[in-house]
Design a protein that fits this description.
Blueprint lengths: L1 E6 L4 E8 L3 E9 L1 H5 L6 H23 L8 E7 L3 H17 L4 E5 H7 L8 H4 L4 E6 L4 E8 L2 E7 L5 H11 L6 H9 L23 H13 L13 H30 L3 E5 L6 H10 L4 E2 L3 H4 L3 H15 L17
Parallel strand pairs: 1-4, 4-5, 6-9, 9-10
Antiparallel strand pairs: 1-2, 2-3, 6-7, 7-8
Helix pairs in contact: 2-3, 4-12, 6-7, 6-8, 6-9, 7-9, 8-9, 9-10
The structure holds 5'-O-[(R)-(carboxyoxy)(hydroxy)phosphoryl]adenosine (KG4) and zinc ion.
Length: about 350
């Protein structure tokens, strides 16, 4: 089964052809990071307009690189939520047109389910390597959810952020420290030369909840930067790179510690047989290492390039959906900006 997956929920335009939910025949990601970098965050209207320009060329390239044309596909799938409404509309419209033109089955995919099924790509198989139930930590720029996956397509939301998403916290901390966008990779890179113990941040609460909260940590980073004269930026006093590295490392350690602790609490409470990491923040090396070191069960995570948004994860989730629910043509599909999983 060969599926074209299209993803335009946020700021990357992505298209990929996936076979049987596991093999990537082609994968194209057109980043908009440069467009949004100067604003320090995503500007929704600019994102939609960029998708409008790039979505068909990205799909065309994905088909070319897979060696298939539309007639060689078994279905077209597209992210229909959650995400930015204007961005989602572009992808859904384009995908409907492509599917209609070749009279192919067509279905909408939940972006968060895409992040989950990224772990099945490239010979990954969390079911084989760990088993259900899996505790899934899906952490991205818009979401930080703990989802209990009880089987294919069966989810229960057991924890979520009450304020910022983890990726958002990375992006905001990076902005305060004068680093680029997106902030996660930048913070990770400068932290390598920093000493987190020199700039410790309070560990988040240990209350009996599986929810996250990152706004306190975000504020603490801003206050620390202000007290050191690093923020707001000033021309007279450039930031000391070592101080930036130390604060970045302290922030990253505190955030990772919180995410690992919550995830392991969920494993214990629900008898999780494995931990599945997904979403852009799952590309973080410290998070991957700490989770693997401390979890009493196997930890599965796609390679970093498959943690951030891509079309292959949408194609993979669609294949597993089609296997369970059969082919259909969802011509009346709408976008659902606030769609949840579980
Ligand atoms: O899943 P994703 O590509 O898009 C959304 O669905 O939001 O996640 C993007 C987020 C950004 O906030 C980015 O800063 C963060 O993932 N991110 C990282 C890393 N790579 C990307 N955060 C921490 N460490 C990383 N290496
Ligand atoms: Zn995402």
């Amino acid at each position: 089964m060969k599926v074209l997956g299209i993803e335009t929920s946020c700021d990357d335009t992505a298209a990929a052809v996936v076979e049987d939910g596991r093999r990537i025949l082609s994968s194209v990601v057109v980043s908009q990071a440069e467009t949004h970098a100067r604003y320090g965050g995503i500007v929704p209207e600019l994102a939609s307009r960029q998708h409008m320009v790039t979505v068909i060329p990205a799909a065309r390239q994905a088909l070319d690189e897979s060696g298939l044309d539309l007639d060689g596909l078994d279905a077209v799938a597209v992210t229909h939520g959650p995400g930015l409404a204007g961005s989602l509309l572009i992808g859904v419209g384009a995908a409907k047109g492509l599917a209609l033109s070749a009279d192919l089955p067509f279905l909408g995919v939940n972006h968060l389910e895409g992040h989950v099924y990224a772990a099945w790509l490239e010979d990954g198989d969390p079911e084989r390597d760990a088993g259900f139930p899996l505790v899934c930590l899906i952490a991205s720029g818009g979401h930080t959810d703990l989802i209990l996956m009880k089987g294919h397509g069966r989810y229960e939301l057991v924890g979520r952020t009450r304020d910022d998403a983890a990726g958002e916290a990375f992006d905001k901390a990076a902005r305060v420290l004068g680093l680029g966008f997106p902030g996660g990779p930048e913070i990770q890179a400068v932290s390598a030369g920093g000493d987190g113990s020199a700039e410790r941040f309070p560990r988040a609460d240990v209350r009996d909840s599986l929810d996250f909260s990152f706004s306190g940590l975000k504020t603490a980073v801003r206050r620390r930067a202000e007290s050191k004269g690093m923020y707001p930026p000033s021309d007279e006093r450039p930031r000391d790179p070592q101080e930036v590295a130390d604060v970045a490392a302290g922030f990253q350690e505190a955030l990772v510690e919180f995410m690992v602790r919550r995830t392991l609490q969920a494993v214990e409470r629900y008898g999780g047989r494995g931990v599945l990491l997904g979403g852009g923040v799952a590309a973080n090396t410290l998070l991957r290492e700490e989770m693997s070191r401390r979890a009493p069960v196997p930890v599965v995570a796609p390679r970093p390039a498959l943690c951030t948004d891509n079309g292959a994860m949408i194609g993979a989730a669609a294949c597993f959906d089609l296997l369970r629910n059969g082919a259909r043509r969802e011509w009346d599909l709408d976008v659902l900006p606030s769609l949840r999983l579980g």
